[in-house]
Design a protein that fits this description.
The protein is mainly alpha-helical and about 180 residues long. The chain folds into 2 domains: about 80 residues, Rossmann fold; about 80 residues, Arc Repressor Mutant, subunit A. The chain has 8 helices and 3 strands. The chain has a 3-stranded parallel beta sheet with strand order 1-2-3. Helix 3 links the parallel strand 2 and strand 3. The chain is elongated.
Length: about 180
């Protein structure tokens, strides 16, 4: 965890750590809610960005998610990021491939900040199945991580077609592995 406004320049420290030790996951805890600071830190390789004054619970949640390989941005800043940070060039797909309705639902849950485990629980799926869907989603959207997937997903949405609500899963058939086995004896 670093403060962006360290006396000796927290941004420079974050940049050095990200460059020289890419396996280190960095979380910024700062008073700066500047969009340019958030964008610069994410581009440098920071994995989390929290504002001072957040709750202890939010700090714990952010550290847990970053440790698990995810990105975390204070929710009030994340909403602004959706419209103000230009997306990097696609690395896999070109974002033109359509997501399935299940993939759209899972992406909607990711955009709410849910973990794979929480999504699996909510949709009555296995966590491994959610991971598989996320791999497909990221490949179809041509992104490298969950944050980029959410950003691209939000930009793809038309005002008349928001992400489907989680209740939309009620009309979907469960995945084949959840069908009850019938005895033929």
């Amino acid at each position: 965890m670093l403060d962006l406004k360290l006396p000796d320049d927290g941004a420079a420290a974050a940049s050095t750590i990200a460059r020289e030790h890419p396996s280190v996951r960095i979380v910024i805890l700062t008073a700066s809610d500047s969009d340019s600071d958030v964008a610069a830190m994410l581009r440098l390789g920071v994995h989390g960005y929290l504002l001072k004054g957040c709750t202890g619970q939010e700090i714990i949640r952010a550290v847990q998610r970053v440790y698990a390989g995810e990105f975390y941005v204070t929710p009030s800043l994340a909403a602004r990021l959706l419209t103000e940070i230009p997306m990097p060039a696609a690395t896999a797909g070109d974002g033109s491939e359509e997501l399935s309705s299940r993939e759209e639902i899972i992406l909607a849950q990711v955009s709410k900040g849910l973990t794979n485990k929480e999504i699996a629980r909510a949709l009555n799926l296995r966590e491994k199945t959610v991971k598989h869907y996320m791999t497909n989603i990221m490949q179809k959207l041509g992104v490298r991580n969950r944050l980029e997937a959410v950003l691209v997903g939000q930009k793809r949405q038309r005002p008349s077609a928001p992400f489907p609500p989680i209740d939309a899963t009620a009309s979907m058939a469960p995945e084949p592995s959840t069908y009850p086995m019938k005895s033929t004896i």
